[in-house]
Structures are given as C-alpha cells and as structure tokens.
Amino acid sequence: MKRWLKLCSAVGVALSMQACAWVPPMLGGTAGYGDPQHNPLIVSSQNAIHALADGMARHELGDAPVLVATVVNVNQLSRSAPLGRTLSELYASQLSRLGFNVKELKLRGDVFIQEGTGELLLSREIRNIADTHKASAVLVGTYAQARQNVYISIKLVRTGDSRIVRSYDYALPYEADIQKLLVGN
C-alpha cells in the first residue's frame, strides 16, 4: 500500500511539473491562424499597396506625411465595419514599410461622392486634418459587399486639389473571416 501511495505521488508530481511547462499553442504563435505571409486578407492588402505605389516617383508626394482614412462602406459613406478599419491598418503598415511617411491618425474616412458626378472628394474634416498635419495625400477607400466577394477600391488623393494620384481595385472572397469582419463583434 505504501509503495502504491509513493508511486501515485511520484506520478502526480511528475504530471504537475509537466503541466507547468506546457504552453498553449496560441501563445507559441501556432493557434491555427496560419502564416501571415499566406493570409489572403494580409497578402491582398499588401499587394494592393504595392500596386498603388508601383512606379510612383518619390517626389510626387515629397516628404510630407500621408494620412490613411478608414475604408468605408460604399453604400453608407459615413459607416465602416471592422473590415474597413482592419484594411486601413494593413494599408498604413505596408505604406510605412515601403518608405512612405505615414502619420498615425484615426480618420473616419468621411469621403463623399458629389451628387450627379460620382466624383470622389475629401470631406472638409479630412481636408482640415490634412492641412493641420501638412499631409500631402490621404489614402481613402470604399468596400462593397456582394454575394461571393467584397470589392475594394482605394485611392491616394492629393490634399491640395483632391486629385486622385493613384488608385487600385481588387476583390476579397466572401469567406468566414471576411463575413465576421463585416458584421463586427
């Protein structure tokens, strides 16, 4: 009986020591989220910024900062979902990696379409913020949800005259992660 008790105690101690050494996979970076280099949302947003900046002469924007507005719903330009905010963060990160002078601001992305013309204009609020920070351009964008895809359009707009310097359009498959980011928490 004593021998049995000692064996159980030893096994118990060994198991408890092993439990202390265990680290959940999530903390180790392998929680099933996949390699960020292969995540469709991350890769497509990086590709979009690369395409937007491809062939762009550095002097086009000078050293002045670029602001990134929240990507908004094309049907409700004053509203966004977590998808729009996430895209904006990814765009800002990639612009910074490419050497752009990105100013960290949380812009609502209030862009609007002038009735009857479809012309993209910067809102007075964003224009004032851009002036305050002496920004040369603002990256704005819209998304539209469809049955199988979410269509995204981004534009680099010069603040002085609202001229679209560069633009890029792409689509994301309407899969589970994207659906979740469109509806929020």
UniProtKB/TrEMBL annotation:
Signal peptide: 1-21
Segments forming domain FlgO: 47-176
Taxonomy, superkingdom: Bacteria
Keyword Signal in record: yes
Keywords: Signal
Pfam families hit by this protein: FlgO
Keyword Chloroplast applies: no
PROSITE patterns: PROKAR_LIPOPROTEIN
Protein name, per record: FlgO domain-containing protein
